[in-house]
Each structure stands twice: as C-alpha cells, then as structure tokens.
Amino acid sequence: MPTLIIKNRSGIGKTIEAASGRSLMETLREAGFDELLALCGGCCSCATCHVHVEAGALARLPKMSDDENDLLEATSSRDELSRLSCQIEVSDALEGAVITIADED
Length: 105
Hints:
This protein is of the alpha+beta class. The chain is about 20% helix and about 20% strand. It has helices at about 25-30, 55-60, 65-75; strands at about 5, 15, 50-55, 80-85, 100.
C-alpha cells in the first residue's frame, strides 16, 4: 500500500495511503479530493482528472496512451508532468510520489 502526497489546487498537501490495483482517480476521490471532477468516471474521455506527477515517480509509470495524450493536448495546464489520474494504476511505483491536482480548465 503506497503512501502518496497529494497537493490540492491551493498547494496544500495531504499524505494518504493508497490501495494498489485501483486507479489513482478513484483513490483521490475516495480520499476526499472533490476538486478532481472526473466527470467521465474514468473512461479516458474528459481530462477532468488531470494531475501533475513529480518527475521521479512519473518515470516509473507506464507510458501514456495516445488517447490520454490527445485529451491532455486540449488542456491549458498541460506540462511535462501531466497525466490523467484515471489512467494511472496505483502500485509500488508511486511510493512517496507527490501528485498535484491540475488547475481546472
């Protein structure tokens, strides 16, 4: 069960324990991060679960799909650390990661 540091849009961090095998989006919503809208429910069709994953942890994640990349292209706050939380499976690769919820478009 990896421990993650989640920063909300105001920059306030909260440490949570995340169950492996679940999506990061589900984990964040269950932890009370309501500002992560996730309007499509994790179907990779809306980009409202956009997060920024610190570089060290990002390098340990599987490469993003073309669909995820296309959705992120349409966001105004995309950068080199951007991912959709619905497309990240929680695993030990995220241990200690700092994840920031992206600004809303």
